[in-house]
UniProtKB/TrEMBL annotation:
Protein name: DUF4230 domain-containing protein
Source organism: Streptomyces sulfonofaciens
Domain of life the protein comes from: Bacteria
Pfam family, one: DUF4230
Length: 217
């Protein structure tokens, strides 16, 4: 029967040092020791290349109103025949962003603007206000909690997944758009556009100004 040789003193010292560093690093990552990682002189360098112009687009719409919205996303992914502790995920995400409402002025034709002979009365017919694509604000959007099964956590160790939050962000954008449609944002945009045009035309000498939308009589 052979006896195992005891570790040398320097081996035990290195093991204790490695365990201590790992423990301190874990506490710092959990924000229990804020500022401790600065001991290693960690820094961030921006090595991004210059922006590339891909296209130019003329804008011909009047942005008449902007709505600020916030939504809490609770997204859960389950796997058939496997418990959530093994395979599955649940994410709580706060999505905040803006939605613009605009009136398109680029498609106006000659008949859409009518002026009387004395140039004292003007009638303008415009399309109804529309909603732009929601814009998610990364500075105000964040994950509250993430719960992942064992297989999901192991998978994250062996692969880099830059799109891990892409699905929940897309869902947040979808719900922000729905919230904007359920609000009175387009009505506010049409009122603001009417006020703008009335003020502009009256400053040009028109005493009567009528702004209509869609098929309004």
């Amino acid at each position: 029967m052979t006896q195992s040789r005891p570790w040398p003193w320097w081996g035990r010292l290195i093991t204790v040092a490695v365990l201590l560093v790992a423990l301190l690093w874990g506490l710092a990552g959990a924000r229990l020791l804020p500022g401790w990682t600065d001991v290693f002189g960690e820094s961030t360098k921006d090595r991004s290349g210059p922006a590339v112009l891909q296209s130019l687009q003329d804008m011909s719409r009047y942005q008449a109103a902007t709505g600020n919205f916030q939504i809490v996303i609770d997204m859960e992914k389950d796997t058939k025949y496997l418990p959530d502790a093994i395979k599955g995920s649940r994410t709580l995400y706060v999505g905040a962003g803006t939605v613009d409402a605009y009136v398109d002025l680029g498609g106006l034709e000659d008949g859409d603007v009518a002026v009387d002979e004395k140039r004292t009365s003007a009638t303008v017919r415009l399309p109804h206000a529309a909603l732009a694509r929601p814009s998610l604000d990364p500075d105000r959007s964040y994950s509250v909690s993430k719960q992942r099964g064992l297989l999901d956590r192991l998978g994250d160790v062996f692969r880099d997944n830059p799109n891990s939050e892409q699905a929940v962000q897309k869902l947040a954008v979808k719900h922000l758009g729905e919230a904007a449609r359920d609000s009175h944002l387009t009505a506010r945009a049409e009122k603001n556009t009417t006020d703008m045009l009335e003020g502009l035309l009256r400053s040009l000498g028109f005493r009567q100004v009528s702004v209509r939308y869609g098929n309004e009589p």
